[in-house]
Amino acid sequence: MTDYRALYDLSGKRALVVGCGGIGQACVAALANFGAAVVTADRSMLLAQEATYAVRKAGQPTLAFQVDISDAASARTCVAEAAEALGGLDILVNAAGINVRKPALEFTPDEWERVLAVNLSGVFYTTQAAGRLMVEQR
What is the SS3 assignment for 69-125? Predict the structure, then answer.
């Protein structure tokens, strides 16, 4: 029988999970259970802190940060602080996202711009900052 746990061993890896809702929380728990140290970040500090529970339970290092990924400077700061806290960064999970719960035909321009700012620009800002750091780390 294949030992799948060994296939996905993340011992010694350092991860940042941005967006700590349902999918993000599941990613945090999975990363921690496979041995990664995980920093959590969310617009809601409460959600970010709640997500660290699974990491602490797995006995891995963790911290929680508040971030607004739609703001490029906030996203860069979050990545930098996560990497500083963990001594580097190996894994980034972009799980942040928002939606407007009404038909698209009823979206206001402001609502649409907010969705794009978080779901598109925010993911880009976070990935760009983490990518630069990972390239530097080789």
Answer: CCCHHHHHHHHHHHHHHHCCCCEEEECCCCCCCCCHHHCCHHHHHHHHHHHHHHHHH
Q: Say whether pLDDT at 4 is over 80.
A: no
Token duo for residue 99: 């939606």
Element (H, E) at 130: helix 123-137
Q: Would you give the distance in Å from CA 130 to the centre of its chain? A: 11
C-alpha 61/C-alpha 67 separation (Å) is 19
Using the CB atoms, write b or e for 117-137: b if 16+ within 10 Å: bbbebbbebbbebbeebbeee
> Which among 47, 58, 46 is positioned nearest to 25, based on CA atoms?
47
Scan for tokens 């530097």, then name that residue.
Answer: 136
CA separation for the pair 63, 49 (Å, rounded):
8
Residue 86: count of CB within 10 angstroms of its CB = 20
In the structure encoding, which two tokens stand for residue 132, read together?
Answer: 């630069």
- Please give the radius of gyration of the chain, using alpha carbons only, rounded to the nearest integer: 16
Lowest mean pLDDT among 27-36, 51-60, 90-99: 51-60
